[in-house]
Amino acid sequence: MSTTRYTVPFGSAMIDTTVTSDTAAADEWLRVGTKCLVLQMFYANRVPAAIRGLLGDPAVRCVGEDAAKLSDDYGLVCAAPVDLEGRCNEYLGIGGLGRRRLGLKGYAREVLGMTMEKPWHVTMSNWERRQLEVAQVQYACIDAYVSYKLGERLLDN
Q1: Which of 72, 73, 86, 150 is most buried by its number of CB atoms within 10 A?
Q2: Range list of H helices, the chain
Q3: Which superkingdom, per the lineage (predicted)?
């Protein structure tokens, strides 16, 4: 099992990022602070109890679009998932049937004023690779960071 660390720049932020399938490294990461963890669940031999506890804590809001996937694929339950799309649409005053979905990139632009790249070749790349490409790590990290920043903006208002 390998663990790789990156510093991912996005806007004015420098995001310390750890990519691993090593559950011991994931446990250690949770004790360090607010950083980005890309836990390669496909290769992890178990889900660390600390991550189960974090996601299962009703005081911790899971902001993003993958709560259902975590539950369906890994049996991980987010006790307090946030409908990010609904919150963003409410904030922007848009909604209803037939509207075009903005997606995370659009919400980053419209709610946060941030420009976010989501190259198609990275979106459609092999995310089950043992060693993720740097572009994949950046993509995953920036997705998580933007979801966090959207939650911070929308849930504090």
Answers
A1: 150
A2: 23-30, 49-56, 67-74, 84-92, 103-107, 120-123, 134-155
A3: Eukaryota
